[in-house]
Design brief:
The protein is of the alpha/beta class. The protein has five helices and five strands; from the N terminus they run E-H-E-H-E-H-E-H-E-H. The protein is globular.
Length: 173
């Protein structure tokens, strides 16, 4: 699955970056892709970036849905992306939330953004070059996680992810 040649990585938040943030989405019928999202992932794939999703999923700790629901949704999202010639290399999600902690996910507390645990875990499992790597998120906690991982973070508040991404790539070049 992962090659041995180090490459730069794009770490993307899910809700609010790839899909509209509808609140606790865990089913395909709840996903409405952000304009340019599929094309942005394909652009990154073609530019030889690893593409990762790092997402807080507190709906799990709130018992609104299960980890299996999130994993199934991520498989579906990758299947949808494949129809556009795109793919996410790997997904990480944090089910932990301090207000809903019953002990099940305490060991993953360091994964919850603004902490950088999900990013660090991906960096341990994939041959990632920090040089050229970056994070795109729609909240300040996403940017704080990028800073904690010592990679640039970019706050997405636009309407078209591909246009936003191309601007980032030109800044990093």
């Amino acid at each position: 699955m992962n090659s041995t040649t180090p490459r730069s990585a794009a770490f993307l938040d899910r809700d609010g970056v790839l899909n509209e943030d509808s609140g606790y989405a865990y089913r395909p019928d709840q996903i409405k892709w952000i304009a340019g999202a599929k094309e942005a992932v394909r652009f990154l794939n073609e530019a030889n970036y690893y593409v990762f999703v790092v997402t807080n999923q507190t709906g799990i700790s709130r018992n609104l849905y299960t980890e299996s629901d999130v994993q199934d949704l991520h498989l579906w999202m990758n299947a949808e992306l494949s129809t556009s010639g795109a793919h996410i290399d790997d997904f990480r999600y944090s089910p932990f939330h301090p207000d809903y902690d019953d002990g099940r996910f305490r060991s993953l507390a360091h994964w919850r953004k603004p902490s950088a645990g999900m990013i660090f875990d991906l960096m341990q499992h994939w041959p990632i070059k920090r040089q050229g790597s970056f994070m795109i998120g729609d909240r300040s906690t996403d940017i704080e996680a990028a800073q904690a991982a010592t990679i640039p973070g970019f706050l997405f508040k636009d309407e078209d992810l591909l246009k936003f991404l191309k601007n980032i790539i030109s800044q990093l070049a």
